[in-house]
Description:
Elements: E1 32-36, E2 40-43, H1 44-58, E3 63-66, E4 72-76, E5 89-97, E6 102-107, H2 111-122, E7 129-133
Antiparallel strand pairs: 1-6, 1-7, 2-5, 3-6, 4-5
Helix pairs in contact: 1-2
Amino acid sequence: MLQPVRTKYRKAHKGRIHGIASRCNYINYGAYALKAMEPNRIIGKQIEAARVALTRHMKRQGRVWTRIFPNVPVSKKPVEVRMGKGKGSPEYWACRVKPGRILFEVDGISEKIAKEALYKASAKLPIKTKFIKRFV
């Protein structure tokens, strides 16, 4: 599962996801990509599940680039614990995704296979996505 090796702080504020993506909003590496269309947090397990679905459909052909990384710790208190007594311990890692952000890029395969593979990957994610291709 994806998570940072070390961070400056153990816990983070929840925060809000405002605006549209100003970074990672163009295809840089591959020919086809999956683009986020709405804001949300994507956890490490979802990123990994999407990547596995993507590579399985591609059958070890082509190349995949993951353009997101879970770097925000999400804390959670145990079940049936009373209010107060501080913030819970970090439970999992998430990535804040703004609309317009490129999530995955693929290259070295046909457009048909890329479209199907990215569609299967998008089914594992909690947001609406869009298939895009590079215009050269």
